[in-house]
Amino acid sequence: MVKRNAARNSILAVIKSDDSTITSAVDIAQEFIAFYTSLLGTEVQTLPVDDDVFKWDPKLSYEYALEFFRAFAASEVKQAIFQISDNKALGPDGYSSCFFKKAWNVVGHQVCRAMMDFFKSGWMLRQLNHTIIALVPKSEHSPSVADCWCISYCNVIYKAITKIIAN
Question: What PANTHER family does the record point to (predicted)?
Answer without folding.
Answer: NON-LTR RETROLELEMENT REVERSE TRANSCRIPTASE-LIKE PROTEIN-RELATED, RNA-DIRECTED DNA POLYMERASE
